[in-house]
Amino acid sequence: MSDLRDDQWFTEVFDSHGSAFSLKISEKLLDVQSPYQHLEVYATETYGNLMVLDGCVMLTDRDNFLYHEMIAHPALFTHQDPKRVVIIGGGDCGTLKEVLRHPGVEQVTQIDIDEEVTKASERFFPVVGRIE
């Protein structure tokens, strides 16, 4: 699916902050317009695979754990005895993986509007959602 030049970069610009984040990409792996959003996956030179939704970075192989751990663990560690958890969004399944590390959790319900995100994650980010 790659249609990129050798010097291609993905850049997300934050106009209101006067900054940007860029990663050098080697290949476009997926480009899908779902009923809800534009989903792209790229292979990068230093961060592994990169998922982009509507032009915004969602996750990379290299640093996704930071996001998922910080969403799941602070809430679960501050709750006295979490048994049932609801995850709104989280189609990449990384937060689900972290929630399931808590042995007292008996039930998890994950709700995401876009099945394409979960499909792309299973295909291009298998470690993110792999329950160990």
From TrEMBL:
Residues 7-132 form the PABS domain. InterPro entries: PABS (IPR030374), PABS_CS (IPR030373), SAM-dependent_MTases_sf (IPR029063), Spermi_synthase (IPR001045), Spermidine_synt_N (IPR035246), Spermidine_synt_N_sf (IPR037163). It comes from the Bacteria. Gene3D superfamilies: Spermidine synthase, tetramerisation domain, Vaccinia Virus protein VP39. Keywords: Polyamine biosynthesis, Spermidine biosynthesis, Transferase. Belongs to the spermidine/spermine synthase family. This is PABS domain-containing protein. The lineage of its organism: Bacteria, Pseudomonadati, Pseudomonadota, Gammaproteobacteria, Oceanospirillales.
